[in-house]
Design goal:
This protein is α+β, with helices and mostly antiparallel strands and about 325 residues long. It contains 14 helices and twelve strands. The longest helix has 18 residues, at about 315-330. The model has no long low-confidence stretch (mean pLDDT about 95). The structure holds flavin-adenine dinucleotide (FAD). This is 4-hydroxybenzoyl-CoA reductase subunit beta.
């Protein structure tokens, strides 16, 4: 492991200054450290300095505000999974958080770290493989094992988005708050993540020096039809039941009133470099009478632009089935 300087700033301003372009080249944020330290130990990154968020006030915790829920970036995944309001009104998020990784990782891992974790592609994670994402000259996965690669959205790099919470937050129209040297900005979660076609070296729009401070989720009554909290579910297919990333995951939110789907949101993980919004499924569902709704057909609309590779065609079938199951489960109540 390479030596690095460790900083523990006591304010957001100090943090941003330590990370800024002038002072912070090769400076990395550390939250729970469950992903960052792996990257350092495995020699994938060699930070000159590591800036901890542990001493920065007001970054941890979940508060209910007038316009919705505010989840601080340093809130642990375990706290999100256990929060009573999240469990009842944002069920897909509680399920995504409660089912990810292992209890140990959920206890130290934070929301900010989960959203900003780096991809799990074997080739990116191998210290001796200079893949495109690490400044190399080719994607080695393409001529290797394509089983875990994306089926849509790839562009020279074919990673899949790894964060379960990001997929769940997508169906609640969450917004990501960011602080940097030029102030604060807030982005819809769909605009926070970027694919390799935009910049192959990163997965979000965060600039050097910027920190995610919290995630805002609209009030349940603003998401649900007729003021009712929406029904939502998170389903995840993986190779091992514990401590494993999604092969494919799906978050579904449905609002049904008077026998008709009023609103619907469907997002997929494990299929694209960013959380993938299944807009054709949403269009099929919205305004449809529940009696005439064919969840099997809805499932087939999951990834219309899928272009599977040699070993990952199973992901399309899996996505279709998970979407079908998610819808059926919510309609069954
Ligand atoms: C065995 C194993 C299984 C796992 N399974 C899953 C799984 O099934 N699903 C899943 O979603 N995840 C899974 N993970 C990933 C795990 O959830 C993440 O490691 C964890 O959430 C990261 O949180 P952290 O606070 O430890 O982040 P850190 O390791 O501290 O940071 C991770 C990254 O985010 C950046 N970062 C941290 N906080 C901020 C912030 N506020 N603003 C900007 N950047 C920030 C860091 O610089 C770093 O690049 C697994 C990890 C392991 C080791």
């Amino acid at each position: 492991m390479n030596p690095f300087q460790y900083h523990e700033p006591q304010s957001l301003a100090e943090t941003v200054a330590l990370l800024s372009v002038e002072t912070g080249a090769d400076a990395h944020i550390i939250a729970g450290g469950s992903d960052l330290l792996d990257e350092v130990k495995e020699g994938i990154i060699r930070p000159a300095s590591v800036v901890s968020l542990a001493g920065v006030p007001d970054l941890a915790g979940i508060t209910e505000a007038e316009d919705g829920l505010r989840i601080g970036a340093m809130t642990t995944i375990a706290d999100i999974a256990a929060h009573p309001v999240i469990r009842t009104a944002y069920t897909a998020l509680a399920e995504a958080a409660g089912g990810l990784a292992t209890p140990q990782i959920r206890n130290v891992g934070t929301l900010g770290g989960n959203l900003n974790q780096r991809p799990r592609c074997w080739y990116y994670r191998h210290p001796l493989i200079p893949c495109l994402k690490k400044g190399g000259d080719r994607c080695y996965a393409l001529v290797g094992n394509t089983k875990h690669l994306c089926v849509t959205g790839g562009d020279r790099c074919y990673i899949v988005h790894p964060s379960d919470t990001a997929v769940a937050l997508s169906v609640f129209n969450a917004a990501v708050e960011i602080a940097g040297s030029s102030g604060k900005r807030t982005l819809p979660i769909g605009e926070f993540f970027t694919g390799p076609g935009v910049d192959i070296s990163r997965e979000t729009v965060l600039e050097q020096g910027e920190v995610v401070t919290r995630v805002n989720v609209p009030r349940p009554s603003d998401l649900g039809a007729e003021g009712q909290p929406p029904r939502s579910v998170y389903l995840k297919a993986r190779e091992r039941e514990a401590g494993d990333f999604a092969l494919v995951s799906v978050a579904v939110r449905l609002d049904v009133a008077n026998g008709t789907v009023q609103q619907a949101a469907v997002a997929l993980g494990g299929v694209a470099p960013v959380p993938y919004r299944a807009t054709e499924v949403e269009e099929y569902l919205i305004g449809r009478a529940v009696d005439s709704l064919d969840s099997t057909h809805a499932g087939t609309l999951s990834i219309p632009d899928a272009r599977p590779m040699t070993d990952n065609g199973y992901k399309v079938v899996m996505a279709n089935n998970l979407v079908k199951q998610g819808i059926a489960r919510l309609l069954a109540g």
